[in-house]
Structures are given as C-alpha cells and as structure tokens.
Design brief:
Layout: H1 10-25, H2 27-30, E1 37-43, E2 51-59, E3 67-71, E4 89-96, E5 112-114, E6 119-123, E7 129-137, E8 147-148, E9 153-155, E10 163-164, E11 172-177, E12 183-185, E13 196-199, H3 202-206, E14 210-213, E15 217-223, E16 226-234, H4 242-260, E17 267-274, E18 282-285, E19 289-294, H5 301-316, H6 343-360, H7 366-382, H8 391-396, H9 398-401, H10 412-415, H11 419-437, H12 444-457, H13 473-484, H14 489-495, H15 504-510, E20 513-519, E21 528-530, E22 540-543, H16 548-551, E23 559-563, E24 566-567, H17 573-578, E25 585-592, E26 595-602, E27 609-615, H18 621-632
Parallel strand pairs: 1-11, 16-17, 17-19
Antiparallel strand pairs: 1-2, 2-7, 3-6, 3-10, 4-7, 5-6, 8-9, 9-14, 11-13, 12-14, 15-16, 18-19, 20-27, 21-22, 23-24, 23-25, 25-26
Bound molecules: zinc ion (2 copies).
C-alpha cells in the first residue's frame, strides 16, 4: 500500500489544515489521544557498517495534530550522563504511508525538519499514516550504547529508538529483521524464532535490551515456578565453567528472593557478554533483564567472580530502582538529565546488598564479605571528596561522575565521591544501627521491603509508567525510622545530607566487630595519584589540593621523569617513593608539554590509612547473634 497523499484534492487539503489548526488550539487536551498504531522496525542489512536501520510506522487517528515530533533521548536510565544519542543518527527521512514488509512501495516524501539537536518534526497534513526512517551508528558493547558488527547486534533501546513526543504512553510494536542465521533474544522472547513483540509503551520497548547473533547460547533454571534464562555470548574461552556459573547465578537469585519475596515478573533474563577485549565492561539493570559485559573470558578466575558480583548487584535492582524507585525516576524527561538526591539509595544500597547477597548465596564466606566492605571503607575514608560531598550531593552529581564524557578538565577527583561506595557504607552502617537500636527486630532489608509494599505495590499508579509512585528522601527516612523504632533524623542530617564521618564504632559494635585503622604502606604523603588510563607512562592523574605535590607545583598531566636524581618507571614509582619519609626533600623532574620542570617534593605526614573489620574476641552472645542474623538473613 502506498500513502494517500496524491489522492487528496487541494480543496480538501485546505479544509483539513483548517481543522487541524483548530484542533491545534486544543492541543494540550488532545496530546494524550493515542496514535492508532506505532510500529518500530529494526533491520541490519550491513552489520559491518555498524548502522542499525530503523523505521517507525505510524497510523494517525482522526483529528491528529498537523505534525509529530520525534526525539532521540539524550541519555539512558542507569547511567545519568548526557550522551546525546542523536549524534549517531543519520539519513532521517519521513514518507507518507506504510509499506508492508517485503513489498516494494513508491512513497512520497513528507516535509521533515530538524528543529533542534535531538528533535525531528514531520508534517502529518494530508496523510493518515507515515513512516520515519533513519540509520543509527552503534559500535560500543555497553549497557548504555549499542553495537552492530559482523558478530552480533546488541542494543540498548534508548540509543536506537526515537520516541514520538507526547506519545511515549502509547502501545508500540517491534519487528526485527535479523541477518540470515542470526537469532534474537530478549526478556520477552517466548520462542527462538520470534521476531515481533508488543509493548504497552515506548518505555518498556527501550527497557528491553536485545541480542541478535548466530551463536549465543542459553541455560535455564526455575525458582518458585518462574523462569530464569542465562544467555551468554562468549568471545573467549569458557574453560568449562558455564555449568558452575549458571548454578552460582541460581544461588544468587534464591538468596535475593529469600530477602524480598517473590518477584513480580514471570521470567527474567541475564544477558552476558564475555567480550575478551580487555576494555568493555558494564552492568545495566532493566525491568525483567540485565545486560552484563565483562572485558575478559568466563574461563578467567577474576572474570568469573566479577560477572557474579555484577549479577548480584543487577538482580537486586529488580526491586531497588526498577520498581521501588526515587520519585524523580520515571516517566523520564530525556531532554535533560534526571536529578535525584536518592542515588545513594538506588545504587549505593544496591552495592551493599549485592555484596551481602554474595555471602548469603554461599559464594563468599563471611571474611570475604567483611574484607570487601573494609576495602570500600578504605577507599571512601581516603578520598578527598569525602570531606566535601554528602551522599545526597553525590547523587545530584550523577550526570557528571558516572561514566560521563570528560572533554573538560575538572577538579572532580578532589571534590567528589561516588554514590556507589558512599551509599554502600551509609547503607551498611544504617542497617547495623537499625538492627542495634531495635534489638534485632528491624533491619534495612525490612525497611526496603516495607517501602516496596508501600510505594510500588500499594500506592495508586501515579502515571502511565509502572505501578505505584516513587519515594522521596523524606519517605525513606520515615520508613527507616519506623523499623528502627527511633527517630533517625539526626543520622540522616549528619551522614546523608552532611559529610560527618559515619558512626562506624557504634554500628560495628552492635554486631561484635571493630574497625581497625592502620597507616597505609607508604610512610609519607605526596598527594598525587597516577593516571590509570595511561598505563605506559608515569603520568600524574590528579594532585590533591593542599598536598606536598601541589606545594611543589606539580600538575595533573605532568609526566614524572626522575625522582631523587634517578630515572623512574611506572612499576617502581611506589617503591621509589617508599624509600623516603615525611619531611624528606626529594628532587623531582617532570615533563609538562615540551618543558622540563625541576622542583622539590617535600613529603608530608602519612595521610592514607587502611581499614580492616575484625571480630571482637569477647563479644557478647547478643552481639554474636545480631551478627549472625545480619550475615545470614535469618
Ligand atoms: Zn552478542
Ligand atoms: Zn546499579
């Protein structure tokens, strides 16, 4: 079928556009009138070009406005930086009518205007249906971006599919045309040859990451009658570890269900890529699935462990963030970054429970779990940003700190902390304080379960997007206080909204543990960190404010050539520094652009500490019982 543009006589055109103009006055009330149908078609006829081919077919209702705006999101939930997916969109065109699949149609070109960096406006005058086509380049294997190459197509819908402005709530259909021999899988796939899906709205379409390749494989297990799939696309040797890997995933799922109760979905899909490229790594949560990408092969011990740790974190998001969510989290405005004070809850507390669940699943022993938390404490307590940025303020920095593009030099290493480790520690300390103050009757997990019931399950649906409503920081504080049986507003004021050091001694004391601080290996303070991105040279990555390095005039980007008159390489940097002590004056030579700079570094007092959680030998039975309940969840 071709479009109907030619069949319309000019007189009708005038009448129609007059009606459309009248309708346009009442546009605010008519915006929600759904379109008759929206179908997304995805093809990939030349995988090596990395160009996904998208067609959006729209049937218009009577009285539709005279134009539709289509918009490419600027970012994707889960990673809050602006990426401007529109930068990879090319060859956008609008055509009158809809051409049936495999048919050859002669379609007229509709007027199309790019009205800003992310928006295209198509005229709908004189047509009852239209097709917008474009290509989008994708060559990043990541939970945020998409990749099409000779091996596979793997996409995050936000980076591929434009939405129709004011019509995100409308139902949409997806049809995928894969290259010959490639099979499609996502969390809604019922059959291996399935090529079309129906979604209640655009948000769920893009919350359904999809893998298309000839050679992915899948394992399945059931928990309480629900279906779990572990899809793996491996680019490296698995070393025979797949069966054990799937069993460990099942243990993680069971441990988390023991905490939360039955999940809402009927089926859940883990999509793993073992990229074996030494750089791709990510984990991204979705409503009924997760994308996990590891830089190595499953056969490598560290990669196996890392993939499980990520799976534990992402599966916790099934409840915390995908359903129980901050008030600002959906429906989303993709024209500007999301802003919430609650990412320390959404991500940080997920980090904490991701680790605790590795223990409860039987994959880490208690000592491993405590070691992991000690490492987080060491990281946070040594970070200069800890003294300057609260957990809530860190949440508001999300668009700048979590994988954000960095074209501009910043002082973020000195001023910011990440809401992941900071929220992890606030969550752990809060958990122990609730347990201690309530004599074991309350816990953070009880608070989370109550919030899930109150805000997700039982609140009236606030918008078209998901059940219930989001929570505010005040809601969270209230529920935490309720389960603790005491008012926690002072804790939140000091440790969530301000930067006061967490009450570790009190918190760990309740469970018969003690936090031991010792001076880190280096018996001095220089105040520099090396640039981790450049592993070849001895490049200074950041200089701590008010540090000996700053006093010596050193800058980020300087390349260290010699220390104490001796040439130096990256491998022996710490060793070389370790020969000196506080107060020593050390000649240092750095290269800055084309200049050679000679200066003197005067080392300061040791200011880096290591933290270790230890059992108190004479802990009371009550303390030991609280610790057991915390670690085991029983
Ligand atoms: Zn793949
Ligand atoms: Zn997360």
């Amino acid at each position: 079928m071709t479009h109907r543009f030619h069949q319309l006589v000019p007189r009708l055109f005038v009448v129609l556009s007059f009606l459309v103009t009248l309708a346009g006055v009442a546009v605010a009330s008519q915006q929600d009138q759904p379109l008759k149908s929206i179908t997304y078609r995805l093809a990939m006829t030349r995988p090596v070009s990395h160009l996904f081919e998208v067609a959006i077919e729209v049937e218009l209702p009577e009285g539709a406005p005279s134009s539709l705006d289509l918009q490419m999101p600027k970012w994707s939930p889960g990673r809050y930086a602006i990426f401007d997916f529109a930068k990879n969109v090319q060859e956008v065109q609008a055509l009158g009518g809809i051409c049936p699949r495999l048919a050859q149609c002669k379609m007229s070109v509709l007027p199309l205007q790019r009205i800003d960096d992310q928006t295209w406006r198509v005229s709908t005058i004189n047509t009852q249906s239209l097709t917008v086509r474009y290509k989008v380049f994708g060559n990043d294997l990541s939970g945020t971006f998409s990749q099409l190459d000779s091996r596979h197509a793997n996409y995050n819908g936000h980076s591929i599919f434009m939405y129709i402005v004011n019509h995100k709530p409308d139902p949409v259909k997806l049809e995928i045309d894969p290259p010959a021999g490639w099979r499609i899988i996502n969390d809604r796939s019922q059959r291996v040859d399935q090529r079309s899906w129906q979604f209640p709205n655009w948000d769920e379409l893009v919350d359904t990451p999809t893998e298309i390749a000839p050679d992915w494989t899948v394992d399945e297990f059931q928990v309480d009658g629900k279906r779990y799939r572990v899809v793996v696309h491996s680019f490296g040797d698995e070393g025979g570890k797949r069966p054990a890997f799937v069993r460990d995933i099942e243990k993680i799922v069971r441990a988390q269900i023991a905490m939360w109760g039955p999940p809402e979905f009927e089926a859940y899909t883990f999509l793993f890529h073992f990229a074996a490229d030494d750089h791709s790594g990510d984990g991204m949560e979705h409503l009924n699935s997760t994308q996990i990408i590891e830089p190595g092969a499953l056969g490598e011990t560290g990669i196996y462990a890392s993939a499980l740790g990520t799976a534990s974190h992402e599966f916790f998001h099934v409840w915390n963030v995908k359903r129980l969510r901050p008030a600002e989290f959906g429906p989303w405005d993709f024209t500007r970054p999301a802003n919430t004070r609650s990412l320390w809850v959404a991500e940080g507390i997920t980090n904490y429970f991701g680790h605790l669940m590795m223990h409860r699943a039987g994959i880490w022993d208690a000592a491993q779990f405590l070691r992991r938390e000690s490492q987080t404490i060491t990281g946070i307590e040594n970070a200069p940003g800890t003294a300057l940025m609260s957990a809530e303020a860190s949440s508001q920095m999300a668009p700048f700190i979590d994988g954000a593009p960095e074209a501009q030099l910043t002082n973020i290493p000195n001023t910011a902390i990440s809401y992941y480790p900071k929220g992890e520690l606030v969550g752990m300390v809060l958990d122990l304080i609730i347990r201690g103050k309530s004599n074991g009757k309350g816990s953070l997990e009880l608070a989370l379960r109550r919030m899930y019931e109150e805000f997700y399950v039982n609140s009236p649906k606030a918008t078209y997007y998901l059940r219930g409503r989001g929570y505010t920081p005040e809601d969270f504080q209230r529920v935490a206080s309720e389960v603790a049986g005491v008012d926690l507003s002072d804790f939140f004021a000091r440790h969530v909204r301000d930067v006061e050091t967490l009450p570790y001694d009190e918190a760990f004391g309740y469970v018969g543990l003690r936090l031991v601080r010792s001076v880190a290996r280096e018996p001095y303070s220089a105040g520099v960190t090396l640039d981790w991105k450049d592993e070849e040279s001895l490049m200074i990555g950041s200089v701590r404010n008010y540090s000996p390095a700053e006093d010596a005039g050193l800058q980020a980007g300087d390349e260290v050539m010699s220390l104490g008159g001796k040439n130096i390489k990256r491998e022996n940097w710490l060793l070389a520094l370790g020969r000196y002590k506080e107060g020593n004056r050390i000649p240092i030579v750095v290269k800055r652009d084309r200049q050679t700079i000679r200066t003197t570094l005067v080392l300061g007092l040791p200011d880096r500490f290591e933290y270790r959680l230890e059992e108190i030998k004479d802990a009371t039975p009550a303390q030991v019982a609280l610790r057991q309940a915390w670690l085991s969840g029983r």
